[in-house]
Amino acid sequence: MSDEPNGSRSLPRGRRRFLTTTVALMAALHLYIGWRLLPDLGWNGAGWAAGVIFLLVSTVMIPTGMAARFVIRPISLADRVSWFGALLMGLFSSLLVLTLLRDVALIALPQTYRHDSALLVVALTLLVTLIGYVNARRIPRVARVTVPIADLPAPLHGFTIAQITDLHVGPTIKRAYVAGVVDRLNALQPDVIAVTGDLVDGEVDVLRPHIAPLAGMSARHGVFAVTGNHEYYSGVGPWVSEFERLGMRVLMNEHTVLEHDGAPLVIAGVTDFSAGKFDAAHASDPTRALAGSPSGVTPTILLAHQPRSAPAAAEAGFDLQLSGHTHGGQFWPWSLFVPLQQPFTAGLHKLGRLWIYTSRGTGYWGPPKRFGAPSEITLIRLEPAVG
Q: Any transmembrane segments, and where (predicted)?
C-alpha cells in the first residue's frame, strides 16, 4: 500500500458496497435514536439543533473512520479520522442499546417517566463511554492464572507463560502503548512468552515503528507466536517475516521441544482457525502441529488464536491451549453474542483432558472502549493436579 503525502484513493468495489450499506444502516439507526430520544429530552431549539448535528456527524463519521486507512492520505490524517470515528462508534453503540432498553422499559413504566428516562439514557451513555475509554487506554493489568496439569514433572512445577494477544496495533494503538505492555510483560520474568495472534491492523511499512518495542520482549526460553485472523487481513507473509525479525518464533502448524531444568515440554502453534480461507496451505491443523513430537512428554501446550480450535486440540492430545480473539466481548452487551461463534468467551475452561485459557486481549479493536471485559496480560503458572 503506497503512502502518498496528499490526496485520497478510491475504494475497491466490494469495500464501496460495504461502505454504502454501512452508511444506510447507520442512518436508519441514528434516525431511530433521534425519533425516540429527542422529543422526550425537553431541550430548547439550541439543544435540538445540537442533538441533530451530533446524530448527523456520527452517521457520517463512523463509516468514514472505518474506511479512512484505505482512502485518506497522509496516514497521520487517516489515523485522526479513524480515532474520531472509533470514539463515536463506542458512544453510538451504548446510546443505541440503552435507547432500545428504554423503549422496552417504557412498555411497563408510566408515561411520566419519558423525560427522566431519556435524560438517564444520555447520562449513562456518557458515563459508560468515559469509563470504557479509560479502561481501554490504560496499560493492561496482569491476570494470574494457575493451571493444574496431571503428571507434571517436578522441574516444571511453577513454570510460567506470559501471554499477550489481540494487541491490534493500528490507527489508535501506537508505539507508547506497545512499549508499556512490553515493560509490564518483562517485569514478570516469565519462562516463556506466548503471543496468540491479532497483533496488528495494517501493513508492515506503516506499523513497523509502532510495533518495534516488541523486539524487547524477554523470556528465559524465548517468545513464541501464532497468526490471528487480522494478520491475514493485513498481509500474513510480510507480517510473519517481521515478527521473526523482532525475535518471535512463529509456529505455523508446528512445534518445538523445550528443556526446563532437565524436563522437556512441547510448545506448539497453529495458524488461525480461518487461515485456510485465505491460503489452503495455511489451514489450521493441531494434529499436524503435534506430529513428530516425542511421546510421553507432559505438558503439551498449544497456541491457537481462536478458542474454537479446542475440539481439534483435545482430539490431538494437547494438555493446554492458550487463545484470544474474543476480547471477552470488549464491552457489554456484545459479550452476550460471543458464545454464538466461540465455545469460550474468557477465562479457564476444560474440554476432556484439555485445559483452555481464553484471554480477554491486551488491546482492543474498533472503539477505544472496554466495559465489563478488562484487557489483560496473562501470567499462566503450571502446577501439578491434585487428586
A: 18-35, 47-72, 84-105, 117-136
When divided into structural domains, the chain yields a total of 2
CB atoms within 10 A of CB 105: 12
CA nearest neighbour of 166 among 338, 381, 383:
338
Parallel, antiparallel, or unpaired: how do β-strands 354-358 and 320-323 relate? parallel
23-82 confidence digits (pLDDT tens): 899 999 999 999 999 999 988 889 999 999 999 999 999 999 988 888 888 989 999 999
The residues, any chain, with a CB within 8 Å of residue 89's CB and separated by 6 or more, are 62, 65, 366, 367
Q: Of 136, 156, 184, which one is at a domain's C-terminal end?
A: 136
Q: In what order do the strands lie in the sheet with 354-358?
A: 254-260, 263-269, 300-303, 320-323, 354-358, 347-351
Half-sphere exposure of 170 (CA within 13 A, CB side): 28
Instruction: Report the candidate in 235, 243, 282, 234 with the shortest Cα–Cα distance to residue 164.
Output: 243
Q: Which of 320, 237, 328, 325 is nearest to 273 (CA)?
A: 325
Statement to judge: residues 146 and 238 lie in one domain: yes
Query: Which among 269, 275, 284, 377 has a CA at the least distance from the CA of 320?
Result: 269
Please tell me the pTM assigned to this model: 0.92
- How do strand 320-323 and strand 248-250 relate by DSSP bridges? unpaired
Between CA 126 and CA 330 the distance in angstroms is 17
Three cell numbers, residue 10: 478510491
Based on the domain organization, do 169 and 78 belong to the same domain? no
Give CA–CA dist 156/264, Å, rounded: 9
CA distance 159 to 191: 6
